[in-house]
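Quick log. Single chain, no ligands specified.
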Amino acid sequence: MWPNKAILLVIFWTHLNAINGFSFFIPFSSSSAQKIQTHKWRQPVVSVLELGGVKIGRDDVVRDDPTNNVPDAILSKLGMQLHRRDQHPIGILKNAIYDYFDANYSNKFDKLDDLCPIVSTKENFDDVLVPPDHISRSYNDTYYIDSQTVLRCHTSAHQAELLRRGHTHFLVTGDVYRRDSIDSTHYRVFH
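-> predicted structure:
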C-alpha cells in the first residue's frame, strides 16, 4: 500500500507545485547529481540572498514596476527552503520520497531541489499549457516581478527546460508562491 501512496503523493505534489526574460541565467546546478546532497539551512537575508547558485537582491524581486506585486513579506520567505532541512517535516517527507525512488528505481531519477523560484511567464504558464485566459495568470493569483517574470506557482515550471536539457526521469522539489488568502488550508508559500 505504501508504494501506491508514495507515487500518488509525488504525482499530487508535482501537479500542486507544478528566466528567459530575467537579467541572469539560472544554472541547473543539481541536474547532474545522482544523489541528493545535504545542504545546511540558511536564514534568508532580505537585502541579498542566494538561490540556485545565483545571488538575488531585493531590487531583483521587489521592483518599482507597475506590474510588480511582490511585497517584502513574500521576499522575506525566499531562501527559507524548508524542503532542504533534513529535520523539518517537509524535508523528512521529501527524503522519504527520494528514498522510495532510490530503493525502487536505483539511479534512474535525477533529484533537483535547488532550482530558482524566479521563472518566466512562459515557463510558469505557456510551457505547461496553461491557457492565456486562465485565472491563475491573473495578478490576483500570481506574484509578478514584472510582466514576463514571476515567482513560480508550481515546480512544473521547470519541466520543459529539464526535458530540453535531456532529463527524462526527475523529481523536482521546491517552494512555490501563490497569492492565496491565508486560512486553515491555504498559505502564500508552500512546497
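Helices lie at 2-17, 58-61, 72-75, 89-104, 121-124, 159-164.
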